[in-house]
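#structure-requests
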Amino acid sequence: MQTETMDAAEEPSSILWGLDPLFSAFVRLYVSDILHMTESTQVPGIYFYNQHPVYRVDVLGTVVYKREREDFFCYGVDDGTGVINCLCWKSELVKDDRPTGGEGGDAPGGFNVEAELSKLRRSQQERCRLDIGDLLRVRGTLKTSRQQREIMASNFYRVCDPLMELQISWMMDLPQLYRDCYDKKLQLDPHATSRDSPVGGASIVVRNFLEKNSVSRFRENDLKELLEPLVAPPSSQQLQQLLKQTLQHLQDEGVVYPKVKSPDQVYLVTSRDKELLVAILDVIREDSRREKYAEKGCHVLHILSAVRQRYSVNVSRAALQLLVQSLESSSDIISTSDSHYIAF
């Protein structure tokens, strides 16, 4: 494969990459698109699909070849559009080649601890060792080595899908993701956004302020001085209107939310609300163990309803989705199909 790099004049500035939600996600792309993405001239290991910065991907496909080394497996994964190498590092459990015999005394009640641990070890080893024809799901970062594009897996597993439900769902989701997100160019120029929309420009100013100062909560008055330069000629009425519209815009995007409604409103920054993050994870962990959700997982609307009951009625779907993506990126949860999640 001939590695291509994007023209430096066309490539968006790396300072703005964080404004694109795809930059922090495991992006589901066709293998053919992964293989043909152009590499950044600013930061090696970052690639662009339609000017969206991508460095982590999520792939589902059939193993068409395999190699095993001391420390890793190398699987060729075919999703129907192309084949890509996936380097899957062995865990210490897989490297452990000790006999998995079940010797050992039984605990009271006839429960053999060593035998059960041996069964668990065998099960996990089998799940990590795939054969040609197995269905593999792999997530990881992209790398180009010796002119060949590869996925360095952060997690991978064999998928049991005898009725092809997951594969069909995957094939139906991907075209929609391309239409709604990947094939739409994201406007990353903050000055252009400011010209087109005062609220858009003010939102970027507030976002930068919250991120630069690691703000976790704030009141309206904390932002007035920040937005004054954006109002011309300045007046308290115009400033107050811009402030309300900007806060509403940030709430619609899930960036901030009010935990409790009050006259002296306090807003929480969603990405820094650790209590909300834990509440969401607890809901998914607890409910995905229930028989009703064990196979397909919890739908995002079910999670939202449970979080509103347990934590705050003011949590928006956008705020929830932002933290769900964060949990998915850190591999605390996985998506089983469109908008369904289980604890990993």
